[in-house]
Amino acid sequence: MTKAQLIQAIVATLTADLTVLSAAARAAHVAATHEECLPDNKYDTTALEASYIAQGQANRAQEIRSSLEAYRTLVPSAFDDDTPIRLTALVTLEDGEGNGRRFFLGPQAGGLKIDDGDGEIVVITPGSPLGRSLLGLHAGDEVRAGDTATAASFTIVEVC
What pTM value is reported for the model? Predict the structure, then answer.
Protein backbone atom coordinates (compact mmCIF):
# COMPACT_ATOMS: atom_id res chain seq x y z
CA MET A 1 0.00 0.00 0.00
CA THR A 2 1.40 3.38 -0.97
CA LYS A 3 1.19 6.34 1.39
CA ALA A 4 -1.37 7.97 -0.90
CA GLN A 5 -3.52 4.82 -0.65
CA LEU A 6 -2.99 4.76 3.11
CA ILE A 7 -4.16 8.36 3.42
CA GLN A 8 -7.21 7.50 1.28
CA ALA A 9 -7.96 4.56 3.60
CA ILE A 10 -7.65 6.84 6.64
CA VAL A 11 -10.04 9.35 5.04
CA ALA A 12 -12.51 6.56 4.19
CA THR A 13 -12.38 5.19 7.75
CA LEU A 14 -12.84 8.64 9.29
CA THR A 15 -15.71 9.39 6.91
CA ALA A 16 -17.48 6.18 7.91
CA ASP A 17 -16.88 6.93 11.61
CA LEU A 18 -18.26 10.45 11.14
CA THR A 19 -21.42 9.13 9.48
CA VAL A 20 -22.12 6.72 12.34
CA LEU A 21 -21.25 9.24 15.05
CA SER A 22 -23.33 12.02 13.49
CA ALA A 23 -26.38 9.76 13.41
CA ALA A 24 -25.79 8.77 17.03
CA ALA A 25 -25.37 12.42 18.06
CA ARG A 26 -28.66 13.34 16.36
CA ALA A 27 -30.43 10.43 18.09
CA ALA A 28 -28.98 11.44 21.46
CA HIS A 29 -30.10 15.04 20.90
CA VAL A 30 -33.63 13.88 20.08
CA ALA A 31 -33.64 11.71 23.20
CA ALA A 32 -32.40 14.58 25.37
CA THR A 33 -35.12 16.93 24.17
CA HIS A 34 -37.95 14.39 24.01
CA GLU A 35 -40.94 15.10 26.24
CA GLU A 36 -40.52 11.75 28.00
CA CYS A 37 -37.13 12.96 29.27
CA LEU A 38 -38.69 15.86 31.16
CA PRO A 39 -37.84 15.42 34.83
CA ASP A 40 -40.54 14.01 37.09
CA ASN A 41 -38.91 15.54 40.16
CA LYS A 42 -35.80 17.47 41.12
CA TYR A 43 -33.75 14.26 41.38
CA ASP A 44 -34.54 13.02 37.86
CA THR A 45 -31.47 13.69 35.74
CA THR A 46 -32.39 11.65 32.66
CA ALA A 47 -32.54 14.66 30.32
CA LEU A 48 -29.31 16.09 31.72
CA GLU A 49 -27.49 12.78 31.23
CA ALA A 50 -28.83 12.45 27.69
CA SER A 51 -27.66 15.99 26.91
CA TYR A 52 -24.15 15.14 28.15
CA ILE A 53 -24.08 12.15 25.80
CA ALA A 54 -25.30 14.26 22.89
CA GLN A 55 -22.69 16.95 23.58
CA GLY A 56 -19.90 14.40 23.87
CA GLN A 57 -20.86 12.81 20.57
CA ALA A 58 -21.08 16.21 18.89
CA ASN A 59 -17.60 17.08 20.21
CA ARG A 60 -16.17 13.79 18.91
CA ALA A 61 -17.81 14.41 15.52
CA GLN A 62 -16.08 17.80 15.37
CA GLU A 63 -12.72 16.14 16.16
CA ILE A 64 -13.28 13.70 13.29
CA ARG A 65 -14.19 16.57 10.93
CA SER A 66 -10.94 18.29 11.90
CA SER A 67 -8.97 15.07 11.28
CA LEU A 68 -10.67 14.63 7.91
CA GLU A 69 -9.64 18.13 6.84
CA ALA A 70 -6.07 17.50 7.97
CA TYR A 71 -5.84 14.28 5.96
CA ARG A 72 -7.57 15.66 2.88
CA THR A 73 -4.92 18.37 2.61
CA LEU A 74 -1.97 16.21 3.71
CA VAL A 75 0.86 15.87 1.20
CA PRO A 76 3.02 12.79 1.87
CA SER A 77 6.78 13.32 1.95
CA ALA A 78 9.38 11.04 0.41
CA PHE A 79 11.96 9.51 2.75
CA ASP A 80 15.37 7.99 2.15
CA ASP A 81 18.11 6.76 4.50
CA ASP A 82 19.27 10.31 5.24
CA THR A 83 15.82 11.84 5.84
CA PRO A 84 14.88 12.12 9.52
CA ILE A 85 11.49 10.83 10.61
CA ARG A 86 8.80 13.51 10.52
CA LEU A 87 5.11 13.84 9.62
CA THR A 88 3.91 11.37 6.93
CA ALA A 89 6.66 8.83 7.66
CA LEU A 90 5.64 5.18 7.44
CA VAL A 91 7.91 3.51 9.98
CA THR A 92 8.57 -0.19 10.52
CA LEU A 93 9.83 -1.09 13.98
CA GLU A 94 11.17 -4.46 15.05
CA ASP A 95 11.55 -5.74 18.60
CA GLY A 96 14.38 -7.94 19.86
CA GLU A 97 12.51 -11.09 18.81
CA GLY A 98 12.09 -9.96 15.21
CA ASN A 99 8.41 -9.00 15.47
CA GLY A 100 7.63 -6.04 13.24
CA ARG A 101 5.01 -3.32 13.58
CA ARG A 102 4.23 -0.46 11.23
CA PHE A 103 3.27 3.06 12.21
CA PHE A 104 2.19 6.07 10.16
CA LEU A 105 3.09 9.43 11.65
CA GLY A 106 -0.01 11.50 10.90
CA PRO A 107 -1.28 14.91 11.99
CA GLN A 108 -4.33 13.56 13.86
CA ALA A 109 -6.44 10.44 14.50
CA GLY A 110 -3.83 8.68 16.61
CA GLY A 111 -4.73 5.08 17.41
CA LEU A 112 -6.59 4.50 14.16
CA LYS A 113 -5.70 1.10 12.69
CA ILE A 114 -5.67 0.42 8.96
CA ASP A 115 -5.37 -3.10 7.55
CA ASP A 116 -3.48 -3.11 4.25
CA GLY A 117 -3.55 -6.85 3.55
CA ASP A 118 0.03 -7.30 4.79
CA GLY A 119 -0.90 -6.47 8.36
CA GLU A 120 -1.91 -3.52 10.43
CA ILE A 121 -0.68 0.05 10.21
CA VAL A 122 -1.30 2.13 13.33
CA VAL A 123 -1.62 5.90 13.03
CA ILE A 124 0.38 7.81 15.63
CA THR A 125 0.83 11.55 16.05
CA PRO A 126 3.88 13.65 16.91
CA GLY A 127 2.20 14.39 20.24
CA SER A 128 2.13 10.74 21.30
CA PRO A 129 5.02 9.32 23.35
CA LEU A 130 6.11 7.02 20.51
CA GLY A 131 5.67 9.77 17.92
CA ARG A 132 7.84 12.16 19.96
CA SER A 133 10.48 9.44 20.38
CA LEU A 134 10.62 8.76 16.63
CA LEU A 135 10.92 12.38 15.45
CA GLY A 136 14.35 13.05 13.98
CA LEU A 137 15.53 9.43 14.02
CA HIS A 138 16.59 7.38 10.97
CA ALA A 139 16.43 3.78 9.80
CA GLY A 140 18.82 1.69 11.92
CA ASP A 141 18.35 3.80 15.06
CA GLU A 142 17.01 2.38 18.32
CA VAL A 143 13.89 3.79 19.96
CA ARG A 144 12.42 3.12 23.39
CA ALA A 145 8.66 3.11 23.79
CA GLY A 146 6.87 3.41 27.11
CA ASP A 147 7.82 4.87 30.46
CA THR A 148 11.37 4.38 31.69
CA ALA A 149 10.55 1.49 34.03
CA THR A 150 8.80 -0.65 31.43
CA ALA A 151 10.13 0.80 28.17
CA ALA A 152 10.51 -1.61 25.28
CA SER A 153 13.34 -1.18 22.81
CA PHE A 154 12.77 -1.30 19.05
CA THR A 155 14.98 -0.97 16.00
CA ILE A 156 13.78 1.27 13.18
CA VAL A 157 13.94 -1.14 10.25
CA GLU A 158 12.46 1.01 7.49
CA VAL A 159 11.24 4.55 6.92
CA CYS A 160 9.35 5.39 3.77
Answer: 0.86
Q: How does pLDDT run across 65-91, given as a tens digit for each residue?
A: 999 999 999 999 999 888 999 999 999
Q: Is 105 helix (H, G, I), strand (E, B) or coil?
A: strand
**CATH node for 90-159:** 3.10.50.30
What residue ranges do the domains of the chain occupy?
3-72, 90-159
Cα–Cα distance, 113 to 97 (Å, whole number) = 23
Which tens digits make up the pLDDT trace of 25-80? Answer: 788 778 777 777 677 777 767 777 878 888 888 899 999 999 999 999 999 999 98
Residues whose CB falls within 8 Å of the CB of residue 51, separated by 6 or more in sequence, listed in order: 32
Q: Classify 54 as helix, strand or coil.
A: helix
Residue pair 120/92 in contact by the 8 Å Cβ criterion: no
**How far, CA to CA in Å, does 94 sit from each of 56, 98, 100, 138, 140?**
37, 6, 4, 14, 10
d(CA 50, CA 117): 40
